[in-house]
Amino acid sequence: MKGIAFLCIIYISRLCTCGEVRGRNSATRKQGRNGKGVESTVNKDNDPPTGVPSEPDGSTLDLAEPNESLCYSFDYSLDDVPSRMIILRDGASVTSLTVGNTEIWASRDGVGCSIISVRLKDGEPVLVHVVVTVNGSGRSMTISKNMNKWTVGRSSGEFRNLRVETGSSSRFDIDLMLSEDSTNCRVFQAQLDGIPTRFYAPKAGFNGKKVICGRSTIWQCESTKCCRCRKEKKRATITRAHLKNDRPYLVQMTIKDSKDSADSYNFIYEDGNWKSINKITFEVKRLALKKEYQKEQNTSDEDIPSDDSNASTSDIDI
C-alpha cells in the first residue's frame, strides 16, 4: 500500500512498526468463547478521509475460525511465535473482526481491512495486526489482548513473550524454488493484491541463515556471532516472493539481528541475476507486475480496472 512504505509482507516487511489509528474508542462488554465476559475496546474509525463509500454489506470475520469463503488463512511460525496470516479474497469486504463472540474491531463507513496477521497463544488469538485500506492507501494498527481486554495499541515485549521454547535452533537455507512445506520451512501461496505470492517461514526451532533460489544466493547471514548471546547476528524470519511466470521475481524478506531489531531487504530478478533494490523501486516494480496480471485477465486495456487498492504489507507484522 502507498500509505505504508512498501509490506509486507509483504511481508519483506519491517516487524513491530505498526502505526496508531485515529478515532474514538468505545468500550463494550461481550461474551467470550469460554463464557466469561471479555471487554473489548472497539475502534470505530470515526475519522476516514472524505469520499469513502459506505459498504453496509461488509462481512464479519472470526479470527479464531476464519471463513474460507472470505479469505485465505495460513498457520505458521514467525520467529518461533505461533501465527496466522489472513489475506482477503478478491471482492471480499470485511468491516468487523471478532474472536469468537467478542468484537475487537469495527469499521465506520465501510472502510475495510485487507490483510490481518494474528499471533496465537495456546491456539487462541492474543495479538492482531491489521492493514486498513482508505482511498487507495493503507494504515496499520495493532490490537492486543491483556487481562481479558482487547485494546488498540501495544506495549513493548509482547511479541517476544509469545515465543515457544524450542531448546536450540538449527540453521538452514531457504530455497525459493520450493512450492511446498519442507522439514524446516512452512511454504504457502495466495493472491496478494492480484499477484500470486509465495511465503516462506522457518518452522519453530529453525533459523534462515541464507535465502537462495536454486543455485543462486540472494541473501546470506554474516558468519560471525553476537559475543554475548552467541546467536547468529542476522536471520531471515519470513520471506515473500511475488511470482512472474510461476517463478520468484520480486522478493522481500524480514531480517532480524541478535537484538530482535528487524529490517526489510528487497530484491528483483533481472537480466539473469538477483539485484538488491530499495523500497521505492520495489513498489514501482510491484505495481508494474500487478498491471501485467490485470492485462492477462482482460481482453483489452479498456477493461482493466482502476488501481486503487495497492495492498502491500511492508511495515506490518506478517
From TrEMBL:
Presence of the UniProt keyword ATP-binding in the record: no
Segments of this protein annotated with the region Disordered: 26-60, 295-318
Listed InterPro entries: DUF529
Stretch forming the signal peptide: 1-18
Keywords from the named record: Signal
Comp. bias (Polar residues): 307-318
Protein name: Signal peptide containing protein
Annotated source species: Theileria equi strain WA
